[in-house]
Amino acid sequence: MTTQPYDPLAKWFEFLNDDCDYPKWSQYFIAGLARLGAGRRGLELGCGSGAFCRALARQGYAMTGADCSERMLTVAAQRAAEEGLAIPFVRADARRLRTPQKYDFILSPNDCFNYLRPAELPAAFSHVAASLVRGGIFWFDVSAPCKLREKVANNMFADDRDEVTYLAFSYLFADRVELDVTLFEREADGRFSRTDARHVQYIHGEEALLSALAAAHFEVCAVEGHLGAPKEGSDRWNFLCKRA
């Protein structure tokens, strides 16, 4: 099995992101899907440990979670089961997405498409379109170029907890930011184990994203900042699209 950058973080991802306010973020999606008239059958692409899948399932959506990290999917399935939620989780890569059924909406939050090279976007968006019903909703976000270039790049990030310590060192290149991530986890005997991974996030401009979406026959209904804020100055851009 190929190791994925997020494999070491699977157990800790939601724990280390406890400041992102998953309930508020989830409500933003729930309200937006209702406003767009989305159906009830959805796929979360790049679901990680399944926080958004669980939130939408609790609201009555028939969710499926997809991710390329087996470890993330294992954690996602465990947490859904703990809440009594029947959510199937499947391994899938956005660049080669094939689904046995078509969905009313596909949601892909939290930078999934920053992990794709710009040249990979048109094919990925076409695969998404093929997995949607006509008029289906495609909602994804990316980290804005200003965030990656001015806040993430050439920086160091750390989060030191009792059971786990996270360190990341980032470097700017012309089209991407690379992060060397180290995780120290406390074992049962008190010693810490270390794992290392490299994350590569590509910088996507708005015009290039809009062009790739148009080529995949998506109508862009709105481009918003994080949680619906104005796009200008926001660290995150949300693209709310409809399949023609």
How many beta-strand elements?
A: 11
Count up the domains. 2
CATH architectural label of the largest domain: 3-Layer(aba) Sandwich
How much is the average pLDDT? Answer: 96
Distance between the termini: 37 Å
CATH topology-level name of the largest domain = Rossmann fold
> Given the C-alpha coordinates, what overall shape results?
globular
Tell me the number of helical segments per DSSP (H or I, 4 or more residues long).
7
SSE string, helix = H, strand = E? Answer: HHEHEHEEHEHEEEEHEE
- Compute the CA-based radius of gyration: 18 Å
Unreliable residue stretches: none
Percent strand: 25-35%
Structural class: alpha/beta
Adjacency order of strands in the biggest sheet: 3-2-1-4-5-11-10
Name the CATH class of the largest domain.
Alpha Beta
Main sheet properties: 7 strands, mixed
Percent helix range: 25-40%
